[in-house]
Amino acid sequence: MGQKLVQQQKLTQEQLQTLSAQQILVAKLTELPYEGLRECVENAMAENPYLETAPSDAPEQHVEESPIYSEEGGNDYDIAQDYSSEDDIPDYVSKGHTYKLSALDIASETISNGENLSMFDQLIEQARLCNISEHQRRILEYLITSLDANGLLTKSVLQIVDELDVFQNCMTNVQEVEYMLGILQDFDPPGVGARSLQECLLLQYHRLEPLDPSAEEPLLHKILTRDWEDVMQNRWDVIKEKYEISDKRVNTLRQQIKKLNPRPGSVISETIQAPDMYIHPDVSITVDADGNIDYILSEDDIPKLTVSTDADGMMDIAFVQDYVKRGRLFISAILMRRKNIMLAIEALIKHQRKYLLTGDELNLRPMKMEDLAKATHLTVSTISRICNGKFIETPYGTHPMRWFFPAEIKTIADDGEATMRNLQGHIIELVNNEDKSNPLSDEDMADILAERGFDIARRTMAKYREQLGIPSSRKRKKQ
Prior knowledge:
This protein is mostly helical. Helices cover 46% and strands 6% of the residues.
């Protein structure tokens, strides 16, 4: 039978968000920490001769409500009308004038950040290269923002499905989220997106030694998949006897496992945070004796801008008009950045008021970026950009802004506000007060914590103990 070649035309409908250059500029500036913003302002002043420092007695500037910027992006403002040609559009605005980008694309754009990208930024950069639909991008973005500082996913897939529906109005199912999680787990660093220590090590092992279905299963893979409990309990004598291997082979296998990283996200964060790096806080929070909480944005060294009055009599000249319009565009974006950050900080202070009054980390309430987005009426992507690379100074120390977002853990009553730090505090207390000649096992600690309202399985208890660097009960036992 002969083959027949048939051509078909297919019409598909895809919803894209059209963003103006002003919106892209606001997104970029919002993402910048203090040092990056200062450099960006200096560069803008050097490029635009009609952009200058405002007098010290100049009135406070406010964001004007105009069609230039909208958080949702639903306007038809065309930046091309502000310039004589595309060649005149400055780099800090962008090249070209019309963009069709997702929130994930916008969050990946940075200015003058060099190689100092956080783990979340680097994952977003990799996500941009994926050939996926807009719907899948939203799921992938949410998965990335749901990772903890170690690059691990502590939420269940079912919880992600529910949160996408509630917070993002994004209907999906377990199978689709599992598929997108698989894409995330192919990103660098190896092990990112794992839901357990076992999965984290297996992901790294598969990257180093891809499995060949036609070949015999490697011994280390067998051990990590079938003898995980023995590995966790350090029962290598049992593994040695089961597989009839020598002590030398056992030591080799143990060394292979030690080379795998249980905290893949730390590879990036430790590279960025050099030990001697000076941190300039973006926000300083103060608490007075009466319990009043106030904050100050770190803007002292960043000049307040205005458009020079020298241009007043020359607005009929095309290039002067271009410089003035682009200057106003930049000032408006700076003010919008400031407004958004202030909204986020005020909502954060309200949510974490108890901690800010006491300094006790156990008083930190669970908080997600969705909570801040809801309180400020900003998008989750905007909140993510606000948190990116920024530090908050408090009377009790300086912390990354993301530090104030502790994850919530399940309680038996399911009506509390328990965080991981709450749980860790209880675990440390139990270990410090235990009988060293008969230390508590993971099961014992899980039972005690259950009496205190925490719903924790023994295996999960072991994971939390390891995160704190606490050895097993057998290793803690003193004769």
